[in-house]
Amino acid sequence: MSPSPPVSIIIPNFNGALLLEKNLPSVLLALDAYYGGGRVIVVDDGSVDNSIGVLSEQFPHVQVIQHPENLGFAEAIHSGVRAADTQALIFLNSDVQPEPGFIDPLMQKLCEEGVFSVQSAICEESGSIHPYCLFRFRFRRGSLKRLKTPNLGTRPWLCLYASGGSMAVDKGKFEELGGFLAVFKPFYWEDFDLGVRAWRRGWQTWLVPASEVLHQKHGSIRDNVKRKRVRRALQGNKLVAEWIHFPVKTLAVWLLPRLVIRTLARTLTGDVGYWQALGDAIRRIPEVLAIRRDIKASARQDFLEVLRLIEEENNGHGIEVL
């Protein structure tokens, strides 16, 4: 790709008419300011509000793809990717408002050899950087602990994955990986999994502080999906992600005993939702095993090597290697 390639900005939408009215003008302004040009693709995922009306009346130049029913985040993204005619893609959630100059820094980094995806710095409505927008982790005793984001400064940072709501990605590599895996439907943890699978291939993910987006408190999932369903998806998909990517020794020595203890504790407290999430994960074990085999067949480095590589590189920013 050239340093300023044309870009397709893909926005999944579900009942987000108000968010589209609020944030699409900023997206279009940023695209107009970008030298390489491109287009915006909104994938409406079975909305029942006035999303289509807003798009047709207020944003007639935006390409719209309609799903007749709600298929979930991954399928909305995949529909947008299939429609895109550019190698450079940006995924934006409808509750994300980009700064006018956010595209160029993403593209400059994405065009470097071996780069799979690039993350924007995520700002909160208070104006501060989100405390966990740089996806770094400490791995101890079979568990990942997310580390708070330090002062980002101006230099790019390596990170484990990019948020599916504000990331640039190479279309060819995305398709070669199979995109977001169906095992994580309906939502959550699919971007973690995608980034790790890319790293296992030797493809990097970076955060570029010069690219900033504002993440708002209200979004399609939080406003339209019951809290119990969200919690169930988070818990179940976290287990699936760990079973796919953690080393076998870690699973046997740490995760299995911890899972037994946690299950007993949740049983005593009558946590039905946890049992449902665990059941969801267990039913996906055949898929998990197949995915582990596929990853192993093409892997250039294992999960723990990836974490070490990221922290060794980031030590150049003056933070401690973990």
Count helical runs: 12
Tell me the distance between the termini.
35 Å
How many strands, what sense, and barrel or not for the largest sheet? 9 strands, mixed
SS strand fraction: 15-25%
Share in helix:
40-55%
The number of distinct β-strands equals: 11
Shape: globular
Low-confidence stretches: none
Kindly report the average pLDDT value.
Answer: 91
Helix vs. strand class: alpha/beta
What order do the SSEs take from the amino end to the carboxyl end, as H and E?
EHEHEHEEHEEEEEHHEHHHHHH
Whole-angstrom Rg: 20 Å
How are the secondary structure elements laid out?
Layout: E1 7-13, H1 17-33, E2 38-45, H2 51-58, E3 63-67, H3 73-83, E4 88-92, E5 96-98, H4 103-110, E6 115-123, E7 137-140, E8 143-146, E9 157-158, E10 166-170, H5 171-176, H6 190-200, E11 204-215, H7 220-224, H8 227-245, H9 248-268, H10 272-283, H11 285-298, H12 303-314
Parallel strand pairs: 1-2, 1-4, 2-3, 6-11
Antiparallel strand pairs: 4-10, 5-11, 6-10, 7-8, 9-11
Helix pairs in contact: 1-2, 6-8, 8-10, 8-11
Task: Explain this structure.
The chain is an alpha/beta fold. The chain has a domain of 73 residues. It has twelve helices and eleven strands. The strands form two sheets. Strands 1, 2, 3, 4, 5, 6, 9, 10 and 11 form a nine-stranded mixed sheet that branches. Strands 7-8 form a two-stranded antiparallel sheet. Helix 2 links the parallel strand 2 and strand 3. The longest helix is centred in the last third of the chain and has 21 residues.
